[in-house]
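Hey forum,

I'm writing up a methods section and want to include a predicted complex as supplementary material. The small molecule is zinc ion. I've pasted the protein sequence and the SMILES. Can someone with a working setup run it? I'll credit the forum in the acknowledgements.
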Amino acid sequence: MKRQSSINWRLPTLRVRCRFARNDVLLLILLFAFLLNACSMNIFNGATPTPVIQLDNELQNDAVTPTLAPFRFYLPTPGAAPVSGWRPPLYPIPWAISPYDHFYFARPIAADQVNWPLADYRYGGIWTPGFVHTGVDIDAPYGTPILAAGPGTIVWANWGLLTGDPGNRNDDYGQAVVIRMDFGYEDQQLYTVYAHMSKIIAVVGQHVQTGDVIGQVGATGHVTGPHVHFEVRLGYNSFYDTYNPELWMAPPQGWGVLVGNISDNTGMTLQQLEVYVTNTTTNNTLMVKTYGPGSVINHDPYYDENMVLSDLPAGLYKVHFDYEGKQQQDWMRIYPGQVTYFTYHGSGFNLAPPPPPTKDFLPITPPPVPTP
Ligand SMILES: [Zn+2]
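Reply by user p_vandermeer:
Happy to help. Structure tokens for the complex are below, copy them as they are.
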């Protein structure tokens, strides 16, 4: 019993001592903190701190006063997904992965601007009855430089290209330039045409390189606004020898081209049919019409197409259209720098490419080389 009581008595003493010791430390910390604070508040000397370098009045007037406005974060309200105008740089020309492709040309408008065809004004389109479009239109502001799509020699630089009447200011092409390219295709001469210029810069006989400025965008001739009308002619420099430029202009890198031949079950092409092409990743849908009627429209010697849609980012697409009251659809993959080809002959899609070209199909003229 005694031992127990002795232990009981000692323990509280220890506890008390410990409590005193802790309080002493706390008091010291509080005192130290108070002294520090008092120093910073100049309680002891009452002096205001002076700058080490005295600013003169002018400098003081110009001194930046901090704004008191609180930080604010303006978070954008999500809207409709923007349709990006951005395109990767074009493949270097000549670009042809398969032996029957011929992306030989750069574009007549520089890559830092809209340099792709207007969706509603493609090759083979008809928006004035009896008038079939023999090229593509590229929208550009008045005065934008028009560039040579490849190396060649200027063979026309004047009004009157359609009528063949130099100086004719009533001509549909307005002021136009034609380049006879330094190369051909399938042993036939290639030409490129640039129309509706506000100003012609090139002269007949001049040799130009890809990207040389040959004129400026305008609205001369049969137009509704400033743009460049671009044509590819094969064989002859004639209105009747145009081909779809979207099969001749190099695609943006990583992007491809969709080419179709759409006909009924008797083989008659379906004209001005609205074909919808939906990117299954972005859900972005583009519409392209098949070529309209008209003998001035020519078809690629290999693809025999009646529909081309260029500048498609590589990926999986759904191609669909209404025919005989029913939606026809199929899925197709677009590959970088290549043509994806399909046919539809009244009952269904066929994604097999045309048979490989025979030896005599290959272009005899070698790809373009720079001319001195
Ligand atoms: Zn045009």
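Some notes you might quote in the supplement: Residues 121, 133, 135, 137, 229 surround zinc ion (CB under 6 Å). DSSP finds two helices and 19 strands in the chain.
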